[in-house]
């Protein structure tokens, strides 16, 4: 991303607009009672669009799919299905995210960023393969620096062509959470164990093996410090593509819905390229395990939903979307009380229609 393009991402800070948004929300609360976390979310949405009446159109949920060479070391075989099968299941309404997206009016698009096999064409599949998977980060750079930059450019092109102003980002692929953990560990200088999804169902010897592989990757690339170097050393193609997509989405003042640890890794990388990108992001869910919460803590953020899910990425974005729409409706669809008419009518108490819709 050039300096000129970076400068197109404007911080959302606007004290005058923020005060007006808060006043607008407070007037609703004074009549109907406080609405908790919906209120600051509504203000955020107004600041994202630089408007007192934020409105969303053509929302897209992108599942960015890729394979990762690190799985050859016996890690990251999530749910026991290869990435190509997960992609086909998403495309044929065999995953919850597919059904939830349709129910909530989200356009589901699966982006082939680097699935190892070639995939058959499909109306909801966007073929943008950077390469057929990455190399094993424990033994080599996961991708070349040129491939990392190519992935970012792919994401920029995708976001630039989106017709709407909402992009939900989630990842799909064996090894994706583990590679994201490596990226976040290096960028935050925290132990990689903090970002690893593990829980009571994970055997201790499996965790020991996983950490041994991840520590080996970190040691091999101990000199990788700069964002693009870290991305090339550890990241997946899906992370690279999401970086570019997030940067351009923010430059268009689009809302970015971040779902899952790989999307958090992409946002962290994007923020090191252009810090204001995080102003446009909301985080849709936590996780039953520690890793994702640790990732959210890097942004001093909390999740919109706390549902105890341990599901594929994308489900949280689909479930959070109604909450986001409701927050925006506080500003756009809830009519103002007609104060002058209220003052003029002593029988206001039995003439509720003067309140509006």
Description:
The termini are far apart. Helix 5 (96-103) runs parallel beside helix 13 and helix 6 packs across helix 10 (237-251). The protein is an alpha/beta fold and 357 residues long. The chain contains 14 helices and six strands.
Q: How is this fold's topology laid out?
A:
Layout: H1 3-6, H2 15-32, H3 38-49, E1 60-66, H4 83-91, H5 96-103, E2 107-114, E3 125-127, H6 145-160, E4 166-172, H7 176-188, H8 204-220, H9 227-234, H10 237-251, E5 255-258, H11 261-273, E6 281-283, H12 290-297, H13 315-332, H14 339-344
Parallel strand pairs: 1-2, 1-4, 2-3, 4-5, 5-6
Helix pairs in contact: 2-3, 3-13, 5-13, 6-9, 6-10, 7-9, 7-11, 10-11
| Major sheet description | 6 strands, parallel
**What Rg do the Cα atoms give?**
22 Å
Contiguous runs where pLDDT drops below 50 for at least 5 residues: 1-7, 339-357
Let me know the number of strands: 6
* Shape field: globular
Helix content: 40-55%
Chain oligomer state: single chain
Structural class determined from secondary elements: alpha/beta
Listing every helix as H and every strand as E from the N terminus to the C terminus, the arrangement reads: HHHEHHEEHEHHHHEHEHHH
Fraction in beta strands: 5-15%
Average pLDDT, rounded to a whole number, is: 89
Order of strands across the main sheet: 3-2-1-4-5-6
The span between the termini is 46 Å
Individual helix count: 14
Keywords:
about 350 residues; alpha/beta; six-stranded parallel β-sheet; disordered N terminus; disordered C terminus
């Amino acid at each position: 991303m050039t300096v000129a393009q970076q400068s197109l991402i404007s911080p959302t800070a606007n004290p005058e607009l923020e005060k007006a948004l808060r006043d607008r929300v407070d007037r609703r609360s004074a009549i109907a009672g406080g609405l908790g976390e919906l209120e600051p979310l509504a203000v955020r949405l107004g600041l994202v669009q630089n408007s007192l009446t934020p409105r969303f159109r053509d929302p897209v949920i992108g599942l960015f799919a890729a394979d990762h060479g690190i799985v050859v070391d016996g890690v990251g075989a999530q749910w026991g299905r290869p990435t190509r099968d997960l992609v086909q299941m998403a495309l044929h309404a065999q995953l919850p995210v597919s059904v939830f997206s349709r129910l909530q009016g989200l356009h589901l698009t699966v982006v082939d960023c680097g699935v190892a096999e070639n995939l058959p064409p499909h109306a909801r599949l966007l073929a943008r393969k950077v390469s057929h998977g990455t190399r094993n980060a424990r033994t080599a750079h996961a991708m070349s620096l040129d491939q990392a930059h190519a992935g970012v450019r792919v994401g920029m092109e995708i976001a630039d062509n989106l017709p709407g102003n909402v992009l939900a980002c989630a990842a799909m692929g064996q090894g994706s959470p583990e590679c994201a953990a490596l990226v976040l560990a290096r960028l935050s200088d925290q132990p990689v164990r903090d970002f690893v999804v593990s829980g009571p169902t994970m055997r201790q010897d499996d965790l020991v093996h996983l950490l041994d592989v991840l520590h080996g990757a970190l040691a091999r690339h101990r000199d990788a410090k700069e964002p693009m170097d870290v991305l090339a050393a550890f990241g997946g193609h899906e992370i690279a593509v999401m970086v570019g997509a997030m940067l351009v989405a923010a430059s268009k003042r689009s809302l970015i819905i971040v779902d899952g640890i790989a999307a958090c890794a992409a946002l962290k990388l994007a923020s090191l390229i252009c810090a204001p990108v995080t102003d446009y992001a909301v985080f849709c869910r936590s996780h039953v395990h520690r890793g994702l919460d640790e990732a959210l803590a890097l942004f001093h953020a909390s999740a919109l939903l706390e549902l105890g899910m341990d599901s594929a990425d994308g489900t949280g974005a689909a479930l959070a979307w109604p909450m986001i729409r409701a927050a925006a409706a506080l500003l756009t669809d809830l009519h103002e009380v007609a104060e002058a008419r209220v003052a003029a009518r002593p029988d206001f108490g039995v003439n509720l229609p003067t309140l509006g819709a």
